[in-house]
Amino acid sequence: MSEFLPLSSEEELKGEICETMRRLFNRGLISALGGNVSARIPGAKEFWITPSGVFKGELKPEDLLKADLDGRVIEGFLRPSVETPFHAMIYRKRADVNAVVHCHNPFATGLALAGIPIQPITVEAAVVLRKVRVVPWAFPGTDALANLVGEYIEGARALILMNHGVIGVGSNLLEAEAIVETLEEVAMTQFVASVLKREIPLIPREDMELIEKLYKV
Length: 217
Ligand SMILES: [Zn+2]
Known about the structure:
8 strands, L-fuculose-1-phosphate Aldolase
């Protein structure tokens, strides 16, 4: 018998969640105790999510919890992320979403607090992010926040939560991770440009139309 037995897709998914958390932590988008990631097997009625109160840079698959679409824990020993309600809400609302990443991006959140909308100033931002919506303040971990997220996530890939952080969603973990990273990259670029110049040059209208056609934005 081979000693390299194939991992079940669920075990693989748990490993990928931990890897995603590690990369986001190393990038400074998730702090020691802040930020959470979840993912599900496409179409599943339950999802795996990161725990709360545990150092986020070195999570192991056995630290994760499984929750149903009402946010109730059905497997795991630690306390689930306090944001489990909005993760569950997103999976309920969006059959196309299989991964949710929540980080505390300083530049994206800062621009939203200053009332400055994120602009599609790079091709990647235009293609990957599409429209970034800002969710009004609601206390972290509450049903009020979950309900607002459920409302704003319709047709969106990226949300900024006022006075809090960001959410990226995707059909898999890599897509959701790319959303929050692109969001921070474009927010930093826009911030640098706006400090040095009042009017930021945008991608010309005809090229934006080309991007929309090419990438079906
Ligand atoms: Zn948070």
